[in-house]
Design goal:
Strand content: over 45%
Order of helices and strands: EEEEEEEEEEEEEEEEEEEEEEEEEE
Keywords: Isomerase
GO biological process, one term: inositol catabolic process
Pathway: Polyol metabolism; myo-inositol degradation into acetyl-CoA; acetyl-CoA from myo-inositol: step 4/7
Number of strands: 26
Pfam family, one: KduI
Shape: globular
InterPro entries: Deoxy-glucuronate_isom_IolB, IolB_Bacilli, KduI/IolB_isomerase, RmlC-like_jellyroll, RmlC_Cupin_sf
Length: 271
Amino acid sequence: MSKLLRKPENAEIKDGVTLVHNVTSENSSLEYVNFKMIDLAPGATYLEELGKQECCIVAVTGKINVTDQEVTFENLGTRETVFEKVPTDSVYVSNDRTFEVVAVSQARVALCYSPSDKQLPTKLISAADNGVEHRGTGNNKRMVHNILPDSDPSANSLLVVEVFTESGNWSSYPPHKHDQDNLPEESFLEETYYHEMNPSQGFVFQRVYTDDRSLDETMTVENGNMVIVPVGYHPVGVPEGYTSYYLNVMAGPTRIWKFYNDPDHEWILKG
């Protein structure tokens, strides 16, 4: 059984609140990244005290209200499905705060965590604040929504991004990694992938491997699955006929995304 591939738990934790995924330092090999995905029925509420963690609350689908007991943001969320391919709203909440999410409609909400002990202001990251990028050429094209990039100083550790990859294309490709604390050449960042496909019966392939192949696992990833990337290269291949979405969360000792391409495949960039 894979330690990297996670399938939905879909556990009801209170009325109207379903825990879809729950990745923690206790149930995974990750130290810097924790992640929850929750589904909320209309009117349902989710309350959490953060302790020494910061959290980026992403309105994946549906509409929500978010408060940290001091400021409140209402009617967040811009889409009924991620495949509308428009940016969405998020809220950053720092450590030692309590936040509450209230569902205005049926909603899916990502809760992205990393360690933090320097309290920063709560911040709305509106859809309009998302930087939209088109990366790659040929069959290596993808569209990126930068929710919390390293150029935004709003967080202490968290990096959060959405990626859309079209039919027959590859992303996180050529294979790259960020598992060495060796700046300025490479940063150490753990990473999680939350995947969806359109149509929903689709799948993608994701390989996670290291140079010495002490880790080398290729997974068939279906709609709603997660992949954990503690170390190593981690390319994603999308079969013909399907579109891929994934939500990435990264964190490590230094909040810089500096990756290293697999030398065996870097030639592709020069072709």
